[in-house]
Amino acid sequence: MKDAFGAPQSLLVLGGTSEIGLATARRLIARRTRVVWLAGRPSPALTAAADSLRALGADVRTVPFDALDTESHEERLGKVFTEGDIDMVLLAFGVLGDQARDESDPVAAVRVAQTNYTGAVSAGLVCAGALQAQGHGSLVVLSSVAGERARRANFIYGSSKAGLDAFAQGLGDALHGTGVHVMVVRPGFVRSKMTAGLAEAPLATTPEAVAGAIELGLRRRSETVWVPGALRMVMAAVRHVPRPLFRRLPV
Amino acid sequence: MAVETHVLDDDCEAITGWGRTAPTLARVQRPRGHAEVAEALRACGPRGAVARGLGRAYGDAAQNAGGTVLDMTGLDRILAVDTTAGLVACEAGVSLHRLMEALLPFGWFVPVTPGTRYVTVGGAIGADIHGKNHHVSGSFGRHVTALELLTADGEIRTVVPGTTLFDATTGGMGLTGVILSATLRLLPVETSLMRVDTERVPDLDELMARLDDGDHRYRYSVAWIDLLARGAATGRAVLTRGDHAPYDALPRHHRARRDPLAFRPGRLPAPPPYVPGGLLGRTSVGLFNELWYRAAPRAATGRLQSLPAFFHPLDGVPHWNRIYGPAGFVQYQFVVPYGQEDTLRRIVRRIADHRCPSFLAVLKRFGSGDPGWLSFPLPGWTLALDLPTGLPGLGRFLDALDEEVVGAGGRIYLAKDSRVRPETLAAMYPRLDEFRALRAALDPRSVLTSDLARRLAL
């Protein structure tokens, strides 16, 4: 169960090697979290991630999960919930893709869309149903500022996050009043292996900062969290920049 | 395996405790009699059921995520009153307020009352509540002469003091069974007024000395502490002690002479349903505390006060829990044994240094402990304070206070908890393993369960 401050005792991370996912798990283990499920494709990286959390004193288990294999989600994730209540699900998987290549390789572009959007729809619905059945819990969805307004530089990724964001907001409304809390997290540029080698955007942040914002959001039962918080105002302005002008902005 | 999805129906409600934190969804059933309780328990499904009274437990004791919550307030009959012996038999959903209304005209008062009259008899037994008279009267369970308990196997058992099941049930947080009715021993009173002595105390050491020195002369004793005062004023307090006023003590021509047992609690309007968070910050609470301390008489003896004014001032404001805003609040209540005064001083200093905006901080002395396995009181000092959950770092801070409390051989109160670490709990309640074993034997499928039970693996 969650405590009065929203700190969960059990956590399921979808995308078990995600840096934000692991930073959040570390932070929550320092509070109340004792059981962590890492869902991801079996790999040495997943094993290492599990070991690193185990070293912090948590009871860590892994479950094979592939965002693209939506047929398997209900069975794989459903099994996690039969082992005990999950107080928080962190939907943290996603790929950035390579915009330049993906524009000329529709199959690769579709894989980005399927991972980030279709896979999340499927996994999100499975987890939301299970949370609803247990009458409590948080579903935290990692969206992105990239989904707020499509940019020339990464609109394939951005559009997939826009879809995910809209889906998560709708799901949050559907679950309002059921004891299940859906929180959409919109980080800006996060310094991580996903963005290694890319030019840093203004207001860049870190996985640890995102984890901190998630913990605060849980305490406040927020529905939307921007990381850093200043992005809320920045994006409110960016959203209204006329397109001819937006096109020419160096963003 | 497919996930079973829950079909929401009209009976489902998101429920929280009085502190309004951590809501969870449950199907609420309102049984009207013993048979309906038994039926509801039989039909409750894999996530079990828990009884709930008037929802005054601060944390998650009367919540049951995904399962059933039995609203017991429909079982509200007073079954029998023996006005000679001072005994009342009533159903579990009867509130202490109702008992006072019904019994005061006969010159009887409830033996133990907490800071609110709006708790049910079932809840009072389940949490084994205490009042300002613990040093004289012990906890609520000590005044129960028998109770009817519906256990998970569907049997209704009559449980009497001195038995294992009784001691597991008083303070058992509703996890041994559903209390259906109980018989209580009452306290005789001549009037519905209190004779009260009030004094201002400049600091904590002086307060503890005065409590130590004079408590045995009063049935009721409580100290309100200003936890925002620092330095030399740390722990300054208003000490209030009193007794039921005997008829002869009423001044000549006092209107209560004509109707000495009248009971007419007044009520103020409730705060609106939505109150923004953050109203109770350090400035506003600091100002309140300053005024409250200054407004108290330096020393006044023998003032007459009504029962509600003395025992339940907050009951005059319905839904006062809303003033903490939507994020809610936690109440932290702990006890440390006598001989651990240094721990108490250290904790009070830490709270004052942390600048916790608490305007309801109360210090009391407990008498001898109670037989309930998970009963909270033990002989020592108990401090209770309300804190808004939005206070940065509060979770960690209270965890650190828990460490001090455990180190001193103390414990925190389950009826008010919504945040203690499960691993800390065993050190606080030495009979926890026995309780778990009894539950496993009595209720192997955990039919009776709650969010509190899940959170702390009770």
TrEMBL record, chain A:
<dbReference type="InterPro" id="IPR020904">
    <property type="entry name" value="Sc_DH/Rdtase_CS"/>
</dbReference>
<protein>
    <submittedName>
        <fullName>Short-chain dehydrogenase</fullName>
    </submittedName>
</protein>
<dbReference type="GO" id="GO:0016491">
    <property type="term" value="F:oxidoreductase activity"/>
</dbReference>
<comment type="similarity">
    <text>Belongs to the short-chain dehydrogenases/reductases (SDR) family.</text>
</comment>
<keyword id="KW-0560">Oxidoreductase</keyword>
<dbReference type="InterPro" id="IPR036291">
    <property type="entry name" value="NAD(P)-bd_dom_sf"/>
</dbReference>
<dbReference type="InterPro" id="IPR002347">
    <property type="entry name" value="SDR_fam"/>
</dbReference>
<dbReference type="Pfam" id="PF00106">
    <property type="entry name" value="adh_short"/>
</dbReference>
Automatic annotation (TrEMBL), chain B:
<dbReference type="InterPro" id="IPR016166">
    <property type="entry name" value="FAD-bd_PCMH"/>
</dbReference>
<dbReference type="GO" id="GO:0016020">
    <property type="term" value="C:membrane"/>
</dbReference>
<dbReference type="InterPro" id="IPR016169">
    <property type="entry name" value="FAD-bd_PCMH_sub2"/>
</dbReference>
<keyword id="KW-0560">Oxidoreductase</keyword>
<dbReference type="Pfam" id="PF04030">
    <property type="entry name" value="ALO"/>
</dbReference>
<dbReference type="InterPro" id="IPR016171">
    <property type="entry name" value="Vanillyl_alc_oxidase_C-sub2"/>
</dbReference>
<protein>
    <submittedName>
        <fullName>Decaprenylphosphoryl-beta-D-ribose oxidase</fullName>
    </submittedName>
</protein>
<dbReference type="InterPro" id="IPR036318">
    <property type="entry name" value="FAD-bd_PCMH-like_sf"/>
</dbReference>
<feature type="domain" description="FAD-binding PCMH-type">
    <location>
        <begin position="20"/>
        <end position="189"/>
    </location>
</feature>
<dbReference type="InterPro" id="IPR010031">
    <property type="entry name" value="FAD_lactone_oxidase-like"/>
</dbReference>
<dbReference type="GO" id="GO:0003885">
    <property type="term" value="F:D-arabinono-1,4-lactone oxidase activity"/>
</dbReference>
<dbReference type="GO" id="GO:0071949">
    <property type="term" value="F:FAD binding"/>
</dbReference>
<dbReference type="InterPro" id="IPR006094">
    <property type="entry name" value="Oxid_FAD_bind_N"/>
</dbReference>
<dbReference type="Pfam" id="PF01565">
    <property type="entry name" value="FAD_binding_4"/>
</dbReference>
<dbReference type="InterPro" id="IPR007173">
    <property type="entry name" value="ALO_C"/>
</dbReference>
